[in-house]
Amino acid sequence: MEFSWATFLSVVVVNVLCVGVMYVLQEVDLSLPPRHSLIPGTNQKFLYMQDFYTCLWGDLLGVPLIANAFMHLARNGFITAEGWFIFTIIVIVDGVGFLEMCLGKNHKPDQGFPAVGQVSWHGLSHLPYHGVGVAMSLFCIWHIIVGNLKGVPLYLGLAGGAIYIAFFIADIKTHNFDPLKKN
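Structure (tokenized):
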């Protein structure tokens, strides 16, 4: 599969804009508790998106490489009409599942879900971003298995996956993904 700089740069620009919008929505939300303030009744800090390795480095470094692989598949005709339908279903199911998880009583409040059962504008904007990222990743894995994703787009996609997984592990190790722990 031939690599396209235009596709790569377009993906990077669109991704930076998406992450930028989420950051701005977080910063203009005056209802959010101060960054790193203690969550009432806990010893846990209230985290903003820049505190999560996945939201900062995973989204800015890993996601564009995965999205680039996906967009190379799309521009080379490997995503059919049925594929786009399945893609949309994955985005919706992931968005609803992620929303339900984050609105749960055990979810530690953060910039996207500042209290149990509450979602911020940042949280709402993150739902489709997360769903699209999951759908692109699943499609890339499928097209690796069936042999359609090759060459530089494949290697960049694999690097993006490895980068994102590394930052996901970093969030686990630093307790960013811990559940809410009441005193």
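The chain has one domain: 5-173. The mean pLDDT is 97.
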